[in-house]
Design brief:
- This is Cryptochrome/photolyase family protein.
- Pfam families: DPRP.
- Helix content is 48%, strand content 5%.
- α4 links the parallel β4 and β5.
- A five-stranded parallel beta sheet has the order 3-2-1-4-5, with helices on both faces.
- It is built from 22 helices and five strands.
- Bound molecules: flavin-adenine dinucleotide and iron/sulfur cluster.
């Protein structure tokens, strides 16, 4: 084989034609390297649909590059010479292509980037320009701040990107954030659009067979795989959301409903995180939808806040604080993750719904992740590492840079409040208000201390009492502790006892 000038590594979550490491690629002298490796597919037990999505999208992207005349060295999982790891493959191809240079784009996982960086290979690293805020820019913004707040970061991003701004630079509608207008429960008469589905083609069928054979022990179903695996299909998914979802996203962003996994959510995170969609275009489309009058401000602002606020913010925190961030456990939790997280076999209807659809579709929307499965893990004092592993494994869109801060920081408050100002803890009343789950539940959401009382209620107060020494000083928890202090000792004791009973049942391996 002719020696090549440059090998450009493209990872499974970097399937973008605009990737920084591909920018100066010369098809006459350079080659792209793409590898399906066991280490990345198994460092946690990823949902089989997620592995299928990545391998299929990689194969489609390799084809698209080849159609542009680019030489692609594509290593399939079953290649007998496959070394099983990204650094191993880089070593092998660097040697066999006699490449003078290796170019790579920043990884989405500290673990992998560290492994590549310590492999001794001469790599030129490129910043991941798919994001709006580089690691260095975020570090500069965070510098000197003892605590970070997403809201202030978000305002800067809005100004920089000139999204939803008046001519004088002020926010349209007179406020930066319309969060309070994103919290309607779903009325019975409102129907969510049927989800856009994408039938597997020959490449995806081949990958589904491979994944079914090789990853049979991983939790989650392969059946009904319908995710987009090409840029064109991902664009269709996005357009579908613009046409049928975005307008109601504003009102029902926080709503949950039985057997409705998607409601008015875009379901784009899996495609976006692997490079099939372009963040700048998404933001510009939503901005245009607002100015054209086709969607209200609470929808447009709410959606843009997630994309340029939360998404960029959690990535910034991740790269600023890793690797120590992953060790955070400020409440000192040690309880094991209950088995029902992996099976969905629990009597709690909200948990059964959220976990069941996660195993089936590798998807749950934000409020299910935060206020159902996450809230339960927080209240029950589950060890953060185990919770993080579950989220990383189970969701189609989960990559360390986005999963870890959301889970460890936002859900478990295990970073001591660096990412978020207060724990997102809530009793069953919140779930009742935002969903129809409680009506179909064997537990009574109106009860707290009886045997059939909603477990979230006593666990909530147990959590509040258990961590009073830390949380009483939190300004945003003042009302909670006022309410606790108003209860008489007998009531507090009954809640504590019920909490203890539930926790010891979890420790005994019982499903609630
Ligand atoms: P929509 O509700 O339609 O939102 C639009 C987009 O906004 C999403 O596609 C996503 O790109 C972005 N977004 C919204 N909230 C966040 C957020 N908090 N952080 C980052 N991006 C956000 N998102 C992931 O992409 N990968 C993860 O591994 C992941 N893990 C999470 C773990 C927990 C515990 C929680 C609470 C949230 C997590 N999120 C994660 C954020 C959010 O739940 C998903 O992005 C969202 O559910 C994806 O579905 P959607 O595309 O229908 O999103
Ligand atoms: Fe969930 Fe409690 Fe409602 Fe049952 S009663 S669905 S456990 S919040």
């Amino acid at each position: 084989m002719m020696p090549v000038r440059r090998v450009c590594l493209v990872l499974g979550d970097q399937l973008s034609f605009d990737l920084a490491s591909l920018a100066d690629l010369d098809p006459r002298r350079d080659a792209v390297l793409m590898v399906e490796v066991m280490e990345e597919a198994t460092h946690v037990g990823h949902h089989p649909q997620k592995i299928a999505l990545i391998f299929s999208a990689m194969r489609h992207f390799a084809q698209a590059l080849q159609q542009r005349g680019i030489l692609v060295q594509y290593v399939t999982l079953d290649d007998p010479l496959n070394t099983g790891s990204v650094p191993g493959e880089l070593q092998r191809w660097h040697a066999s292509l006699h490449a003078q240079e290796i170019h790579a784009t920043e990884c989405g996982d500290w673990r992998l980037e560290h492994a590549i960086k310590t492999s001794g290979l001469p790599i030129t690293w490129h910043s991941d320009s798919r994001f709006l805020c580089s690691r260095a820019e975020f570090a500069a913004w965070a510098s000197g701040k003892p605590q970070l707040r997403m809201e202030f970061f978000y305002r800067e991003m809005r100004r920089k990107q000139r999204l939803l701004l008046n001519n004088d630079g002020s926010p349209v509608g007179g406020a930066w954030n319309f969060d309070a207008d994103n919290r309607k429960a779903l009325p019975k008469k409102v129907m969510a659009p049927y989800p856009a589905r994408f039938a597997p083609d020959a490449i995806t069928h081949e990958v589904l067979t491979l994944v079914g054979e090789r990853f049979a022990s991983h939790y989650g179903s392969l059946e009904g795989f319908d995710y987009p695996v090409t840029h064109t299909d991902a664009q269709d998914l996005w357009q579908y959301f613009l046409d049928y979802g975005l307008a109601a996203f504003g009102d029902y962003q926080d709503a949950m409903a039985i057997d409705e996994p998607y409601l008015f959510h875009a379901r784009i995170s899996a495609a976006l995180n692997i490079g099939l969609l372009d963040l700048r275009q998404l933001c510009s489309d939503v901005d245009s939808a607002y100015w054209s009058g086709s969607v209200g401000l609470n929808a447009a602002e709410g959606f843009i806040r997630q994309l340029i606020g939360w998404r960029e913010y959690v990535r910034g925190v991740y790269w600023l604080k890793m690797p120590d961030y992953a060790e955070g456990n400020s409440f000192g939790n040690t309880r094991a993750l209950p088995e029902f997280y992996w099976t969905g076999q629990t009597t709690m209807n909200c948990m059964r719904q959220a976990i069941g659809q996660s195993l089936k579709h590798a998807y749950a929307h934000h409020i299910q992740r935060l206020m159902v499965t996450g809230n339960f893990a927080l209240l029950a004092g589950i060890a953060p590492r185990q919770v993080c592993e579950w989220y990383l494994a189970i969701y189609m869109d989960a990559y360390d840079w986005v999963e870890l801060p959301n889970t460890l920081g936002m859900v478990m408050h295990a970073d001591g409040g660096y990412l978020g100002s207060k724990p997102y803890c809530a009793s069953g009343q919140y779930i009742k208000r935002m969903s129809d789950y409680c009506g179909g539940c064997a537990y009574k959401v109106t009860e707290s201390t009886t045997d059939d009382a909603c477990p979230f209620n006593a666990l909530y107060w147990h959590f509040v009492m258990r961590h009073g020494n830390v949380l009483r000083d939190n300004q945003r928890m003042v009302m909670v502790y006022k309410n606790l202090d108003r209860m008489d000792a007998a009531k507090q004791n009954a809640l504590w006892q019920r909490g203890e009973t539930l926790l010891s049942r979890l420790d005994a391996g019982e499903a609630l």
